[in-house]
Amino acid sequence: MSLVLDPAAQDLLFREARTANTFTDEPVTEEQVQAIYDLVKYGPTAFNQTPLRITLVRSAEARERLVQHMAEGNQAKTAAAPLVAILSADNEFHEELPTLFPAFPQAKDLFFSERAARENAAGLNAALQAAYFIVGVRAAGLAAGPMTGFDFEGVRKEFLDDDHTPLMVVNIGKPGPDAWYPRSPRLAFDQVVTTV
Asked: Degrees (nearest 5) of the Cα angle 72, 20, 170?
């Protein structure tokens, strides 16, 4: 059985896509970011939670502050990317649940009154949304360079607050020269999928 999605789109989103390490200087516009969000916001989450928060780092001053917190191997590419996004989980996401999940507005208090439960749910569902965001960046014809090599607490203190947990930093733009490392291996279907 073949997939319904056009093979060129499959390549764009998955098979040919890789983490970009260099970018051109072509800017990434607010309109592009809006289009990406307007597409990926439909990705499923539990209770239609929407804990992902996106902080766009555009100014030179903010970029300099962020680069200080990046691992040494990630500093130059973060400094040079046309746009950088800090993806974080909002641990107070439950406040929006009565609007986002009107079929069961009691979920806010029934399941998420405790901070620990909210942090667990926010982390999982924001990570799902972060994956959708990366695929959305690819759908916009851009490349993404997601990274977890940074000082999480430093980034939280510098750009967020106690209610937000950083997940990753994503460099975004058109791929530049020698942007890709060779494709790393993947596990085979029978190594991952078990039928019971």
From this structure: 65
Dihedral of the CA atoms 69, 73, 76, 82 (nearest 10)? -80
Closest CA to 94 of 31, 54, 47: 47
Q: Where are the alpha helices (DSSP H) in 50-114?
A: 60-67, 72-80, 97-100, 107-112
DSSP 3-state assignment of 171? strand
- In tens digits, the chain (196 residues) has pLDDT values of 689 999 999 999 999 999 999 999 999 999 999 999 999 999 999 999 999 999 999 999 999 999 999 999 999 999 999 999 999 999 999 999 999 999 998 999 999 999 999 999 999 999 999 999 999 999 999 999 999 999 999 999 999 999 999 999 999 999 999 999 999 999 999 999 999 9
In a 3-state reduction of DSSP, which class is residue 11?
helix
Distances (CA, A) of 150 to 12, 70, 161, 170, 177: 28, 4, 17, 11, 24
d(CA 34, CA 6): 24
pTM summary value: 0.95
